[in-house]
Give the backbone structure.
Amino acid sequence: MRRLRQHPGIRALVTETRLHPANFILPLFVRNGKNVRKEISSLPGHAQLSPDLIAAEAEEAAQLGLGAVLLFGIPDKKDAVGSAAWAEDGPVQQAIRVIKKTTPDLPIITDLCCCEYADHGHCGVLEQECGRWDVNNDKTLELLVRQSVSHAQAGADIIAPSGMMDGMIRALRAGLDGAGQTHLPIMSYAVKFASAFYGPFREAAESTPQAGNRRGYQMDPASSLGQAVREAQLDLDEGADMLMVKPGLPYLDVIREVGRTFPGVPLAAYNVSGEYAMAVAAARNGWLDERAVALEMLIALRRAGASMLITYWAKQAAGWVSE
Ligand code: PBG
């Protein structure tokens, strides 16, 4: 084995897995206002930005050759149904319009969910059913459709629903088609686990559930690979164009299983906030080499079968891989 490992050129020649900036997707957090930059302490190097500052971020992303940006909105006012999600002047809608003016060729993906917009922090309409609070599935679908049409009309290129409601993709496809948005692809957060690795994100998006947790809709980390495949199958049957597995690193087996079961379906892995934050924190203590660890994680996700990588390292990694 060592004959092919001694010469750096030969090592590069026989390498099967490569990272390319065009496969990286950069998550961005938008809030209303002008010249607003609110650092996110749990995600060092990331901030909530107003639409004008998002434009500069998008320009940088395009210059680095990134594949896309993924927008999350943080509204000024939250209410029980998250009505800011479909406001024409909502943060995401404004950011899309600004980016489309300055960087028209950069694909914009929008995260579609209620949790960033609802005061209770759950991913849908909260109702008391049989004496216990729960997210009403079908009422949530109606809200998600409104949000998707609003994003589409603002100019989004891909819609990424992340709420894990049943029948979500069918409802969105029908709603978008009915609004004349037949061309708009859906990237489904199809296989999304109820993960503790989302901790830092919830500070970033101010979306921590005020009571309870997301186990009533997101997958149990202990669930079988078969259940992951079934989630993916349902979404494909309902009209999803791309699939996602989330989180990434602790679920490499799931990425591989979904990728192998549905070859030819574009697959994304979300290298989530906790995966980023723990490496950055360890690096700050001098315990890990951030760059090396980040690249190793991204290579692992790629090797497992994800072609698109959503990562908070997108900008840095683009620089690292082109060196
Ligand atoms: C919204 C959403 C979440 C993430 C992406 N979209 C949070 C959650 O489900 O609680 C997490 C992303 C990350 O941790 O980086 N539903």
About this structure: The chain has a mean pLDDT of 96. Residues 111, 113, 115, 123, 162, 198, 201-202, 214, 272-273 surround PBG (CB under 6 Å). Residues 21-322 form a domain with the TIM Barrel fold (CATH 3.20.20.70).
